[in-house]
Amino acid sequence: MKRKTVGVLLSGCGVQDGSEIHEATLTLYFLDKMGADILCMAPGKNQMDVVNHVTGSPVEETRNCLTEAARIARGEIRDVKTVMTDAIDALIIPGGFGAAKNLSTFAVDGAHSIVDGDVAALLRELVRAGKPIGALCIAPAILAALFGREFAPTLTIGMDEATAGVLEEMGARHRKAQATDIVVDEKLRIVTTPCYMMAQGIAEVGVGVEKLVARILDMIA
Description:
Layout lengths: L4 E5 L11 H13 L3 E6 L22 H8 L4 E3 L10 E4 L3 H5 L4 H4 L7 H13 L3 E4 L3 H12 L2 E5 L2 H9 L3 E4 L6 E3 L4 E4 L8 H18 L2
Parallel strand pairs: 1-2, 1-4, 2-3, 4-5, 5-9, 6-7
Antiparallel strand pairs: 8-9
């Protein structure tokens, strides 16, 4: 039987300006544990900003999303613009502010946000091909920005009413969920989980990520 290949779309390295490391690592762990091949990718562009993770304050540095994400991927990573839809059977997007800063402009533009062009192109092709997409934490905002007005995807970011309201303003249908829950849009083949939008610790995040990964793999034809 052919092994399933799942793409993992990263946005840097670190919760404040890139991918949330716990969410990204748990995604990789459960994909590997469940027997999937993994293709890590990230945009080959500079981050919107760089944040000192000790102080939480921006610093005057320039960092590249792909170079930073390679730290999580142990160097095995590709620029997202080089990834063709037929190379993967599904895609999972960990959260972290990089999803809202580097993969989209959600952190700045809210309901008027746009999605990085290369990321948008891949996501559109995946939806067109009926391939599953998973999004963790704040990453569902990317799917709301890209598909909300056209497809009204059912998504979750947890219980935060303000953020959920922005997703709904973009056209998505929000469902409340706990950190250990998943929300599935069967028609669009999208699975989301709140992770650190709700979780009090890494164990709770792990429960949600494990469920999401299992469901994504089950969806692959």
